[in-house]
Amino acid sequence: MIKVKAPGSCGELVQGTINGGNFLITCPVDWYSEVTVVSGDDPVHIEPKTAAAVSKTFQYLNMAGKLNLTMESDLPVGKGMASSSADISAACQAAALALAGRHLSCDEIADIALSIEPTDGIFYPGIMMFDHVEGRIRRFLGNPPPIHIAVFDAGGQVDTLAFNGRKDLAALNQAKEPQIRAAIELVEQGLEKGDARLIGQGATMSALANQIILYKPCLEQVINISRDYGAVGICAAHSGTVFGVMFSTDNMAGHQACVKAIGCSCTEVVYLKTVQLITGGLIITGVDRNGR
């Protein structure tokens, strides 16, 4: 039985534009979608985007056939946690393995996924700088130091396609490019040095800059509260509703008290769970080294 798991995200460490070109820096976490290939002739209902991923994978491989998949995911939808990207990437890989015994490369998965919708690069190993709209940037930045993230939801849902189709988006992204360039530099330095605090500073800078595009209530207040409890920074879904309070795993003493303090002071937001920042990439089981 073939199973493929893809991580979700807690938004992005950084997102914006560089000279008008879109990009994000991935923030993969240990909260997953899992696709399983099942036997039998009775069709199994899957979401339209997942079905499109299977169909486009078949087209890419120039093959035809029937394939039943089941999808299990605890990732909230429409929150900026890469739920669709996780579903689509896992389905692409599962379909290729089941039909052709083929391990798709991350770039192949990216090309298929981007033909469906704007896509997060969580299926690439490590932390990536990735053009989520056209795929022009695909750069490995490194692996993260141990960081835990307390995930909060500001409420509502955001449609990825509608958000990226906003007529004012390009101008607003251009206005915040200076802050975004500084944020990139901090995150890159943090990954290179294994310094959670630098990564947190860069992520916080990007989250604050994005308030002009997608405002999150209480964000500034949360930043002030979290500093009192030893957090290293805040990451946010730049096209979603969640944000995360980041703690170095070596210094989690204030974590529970911080979550409680935010809940008491910011009634507009809801605590979801605490996750860990991880290296991205798909987890495949039930297949041998030859793809069988």
Automatic annotation (TrEMBL):
Domain named GHMP kinase N-terminal: residues: 54-117
Tagged with keyword ATP-binding: yes
Keyword vocabulary terms for this entry: ATP-binding, Kinase, Nucleotide-binding, Transferase
Q: Which SUPFAM superfamilies match?
A: Ribosomal protein S5 domain 2-like
Organism lineage? Bacteria, Bacillati, Bacillota, Negativicutes, Selenomonadales
What Enzyme Commission number(s) does the record list for this chain?
A: 2.7.1.177
What organism is this sequence from? Sporomusa acidovorans (strain ATCC 49682 / DSM 3132 / Mol)
Which Pfam family, just one, is annotated for this protein?
A: GHMP_kinases_C
Q: Name one GO molecular function term.
A: kinase activity
Record's protein name: L-threonine kinase
Supply the InterPro entries for this chain. GHMP_kinase_C_dom (IPR013750), GHMP_kinase_N_dom (IPR006204), PduX (IPR012363), Ribosomal_Su5_D2-typ_SF (IPR020568), Ribsml_uS5_D2-typ_fold_subgr (IPR014721)
Q: Which residues form the GHMP kinase C-terminal domain?
A: 189-250
Instruction: Establish whether keyword tRNA processing is in the entry.
Output: no
Class of enzymatic activity (EC top level):
transferase
